[in-house]
Design goal:
single chain, Serine Threonine Protein Phosphatase 5, Tetratricopeptide repeat, SecEffector_AnkRepeat, mainly alpha, Ankyrin_rpt-contain_sf, Ankyrin_rpt, two-stranded parallel sheet
């Protein structure tokens, strides 16, 4: 059983305990279960649906219902988000309809425009009938709904839904395009026979059938005598049979982009057919396209026809993109060769095998631009190879680049060959990136050392082993920035280790930035350990980032002040938990701006929260 399933089992247990045993439940068991329900995520329902764990839905829903840390309107928000996901995550047979009903019973407002759109898009008949039952005025209030249902159902081939919509609105003129696009010939024939359909849509319908590679559907529509497809859309023809039919019927004029499409996708048979029927579409640019996308078989074919000839840019392009097989084939079968750009660009993209082959088999060589390209893009092995084979100068900062990349083998090579520009920044860089092996190597083999920045940045990035090594082997130490950075990023073990082993401590910024991240455990530790005058900026940061528990703790334990602007900020950002807390300790949340800001930022649960607590300001009598 996974950890998540164990948690959901706990939720089931608490329901049974409360309703089955009442006061006879063992207190410590209830306490443990309550600890779980208190910590249920604000995204629990959404996570279950996105991960398609529909079998856990009811248990998670019960956990949300029972949760003690979510305020009522936060639960409503979860219900609204969940009902939007259910149509795609659960079919009616999998309990999707029942799940939506449960959510709707809890919060009718969850069935908003987005949820309706999701149900319509899936086009499942039981869900659509349920939707109309819940919203009997749906088609009157949203005239486009019926058309959207028809389009979605036609595209998916949902004949039951199509017939249902047609029965509701028998006089509507129907577009055949969507059924054609999906290749649903049986449904298409039914629509032609039983509905009023738009003859002007036949051209677009034929185009959709062709684009979908549905030959039988295309033939059926063509026999309805559509107008010729005149606007030259970019049709992607995927089969010889379909192309031959389009060619024979002349329902569409072929264009040269099809040649480039086939070359790009490596569709050799289609390309051969196009050459047999439309040789005028071929040019050297087609060869470039095939080379650029690594299609060797296409390159071989194009080499046999007179319309396309190789140029030096072809091998350059193959080298740039790392297609060594094409580079080798062009070398063996054409005389155009390449230019210095081949090696320069291969270096830029890190194609060391291409560089090695070009150097062994061609004479064009490279320019200093190759080294610059490789260095700029972090191709450290290419930099070394270029230096050793072309005597190109190493970049001044190459030692730092290697320290950042973590390749100890290359750091050792650079040290042994006595090259590179080394500095304290080299070890600082290795420490910041957590490369303990390189830090140890530099400590043992070189004399530059490091600065306090090494431990500061290692602590900030949670590289505890690096921090311990620096602490035990070097004298530079760190600054208060070490604990500040660790606090900001939520690294509690690092903060605790620094407090126990170092004397630098932190500044007030540690609490401020920890609050911004909602790192409550660190906040409590800092306050218990360091007696600093913590800035009120901490509670402002906690509010701004939606950390309700951090706000509560700062208010009660550090006596930090709430401001009237905090309620407006919470309404704007949809932080209902913070809004609720502010309301328990002040009257800031009663400001009508909370309602209007929630409305303007499309946060319906904020609006409902305000109305439930203070009434609708638009209906007040003054």
């Amino acid at each position: 059983m996974t950890e998540s399933e164990e948690n959901f089992t706990l939720t089931s247990v608490i329901v049974v305990c409360r309703h089955g045993f009442g006061s006879r439940v063992i207190p410590h068991i209830v306490h443990l279960i309550q600890m779980f329900t208190e910590n249920i995520s604000e995204q629990a329902l959404v996570d279950v649906l996105e991960e398609r764990k529909s079998h856990l839905f009811t248990r998670v829903l019960n956990a949300v219902d029972e949760s003690l840390n979510l305020v009522h309107h936060e639960k409503l928000r979860q219900y609204r988000y969940a009902i939007q996901l259910i149509p795609r995550a659960m079919t009616s047979d999998e309990g999707g309809l029942d799940a939506m009903q449960q959510l709707y019973d809890r919060y009718p407002g969850a069935l908003d425009y987005e949820a309706v759109s999701c149900i319509i898009d899936v086009a499942e008949l039981p869900m659509l009938k349920w939707l109309c039952k819940c919203k009997p005025l749906l088609f009157k209030q949203s005239p486009d709904s019926a058309d959207n249902i028809f389009s979605s159902a036609s595209l998916k081939g949902r004949g039951d839904v199509v017939r249902w919509v047609v029965k509701l609105f028998p006089d509507t003129v129907r577009n055949l395009r969507y059924a054609a696009q999906g290749g649903h010939l049986k449904l298409l024939k039914w629509l032609v026979k039983h509905t009023k359909w738009d003859e002007k849509s036949l051209g677009r319908s034929l185009q959709s059938a062709i684009e979908g590679n549905h030959l039988d559907t295309a033939i059926f529509i063509y026999n309805l005598k559509p107008e010729k497809i005149m606007d030259k859309p970019y049709l992607t023809l995927e089969s010889i049979e379909l192309m031959q039919w389009v060619h024979d019927t002349k329902c569409w004029d072929f264009a040269d982009y099809l040649v480039f499409y086939a070359a790009r996708k490596g569709k050799l048979e289609i390309l051969q057919w196009l050459h047999a029927n439309y040789p005028e579409f071929f040019s050297n640019n087609v060869m470039n396209t095939a080379v650029e996308h690594g299609k060797l078989e296409i390159v071989k074919f194009l080499h046999t026809i007179p319309q396309t000839v190789c140029t030096s840019s072809d091998m350059d392009l193959a080298a740039k993109n790392g297609y060594l097989d094409i580079v080798q084939w062009l070398h063996d079968h054409s005389t155009e060769g390449c230019t210095i750009h081949a090696m320069d660009e291969a270096a830029r993209h890190g194609h060391l095998d291409v560089l090695q082959w070009l150097q062994a088999n061609r004479s064009e060589g490279c320019t200093p631009q190759a080294m610059e390209n490789a260095d700029r893009h972090g191709r450290v092995y290419c930099v070394r190879w270029l230096h050793e084979n072309f005597e190109l100068a190493l970049p001044k900062h190459f030692a730092n680049t290697l320290a950042s990349s973590g390749v100890l083998k290359l750091v050792s090579w650079l040290h042994l060959c006595g090259k590179g520009s080394w500095s304290k920044d080299t070890m600082d860089t290795a420490a910041a990136n957590g490369h303990l092996g390189i830090v140890r190597f530099l400590h043992e083999k070189r004399r530059e050392g490091c600065t306090k920045k090494a431990m500061d940045t290692a602590a900030e990035n949670n590289h505890l082993e690096v921090v311990k090594f620096l602490h035990g082997n070097r004298r530079e130490g760190c600054t208060k920035a070490a604990m500040n950075g660790a606090s900001r990023n939520g690294h509690f073990d690092m903060v605790k280790w620094l407090q126990e082993n170092r004397r630098e401590g932190c500044t007030r910024a540690a609490m401020t930035t920890a609050a911004a991240g909602g790192h409550l455990k660190i906040m409590k530790f800092l306050n218990a350990t360091y007696k600093l005058d913590w800035s009120n900026k901490a509670i402002e940061n906690a509010v701004s980032h939606g950390h309700t528990e951090a706000v509560k703790w700062l208010y009660y334990h550090l006596e930090q002040k709430l401001l009237s602007s905090f309620a407006i900020r919470a309404a704007r950002c949809d932080y209902i938990g913070i809004l609720e807390f502010i309301n328990t300790v002040s009257d800031f949340s009663s400001n009508t701006s909370v309602y209007h800001v929630g409305l303007g930022n499309k946060n319906p649960e904020v609006v409902k929260w305000y109305v439930d607590h203070y009434g609708n300001p638009r209906k007040r009598k003054y």
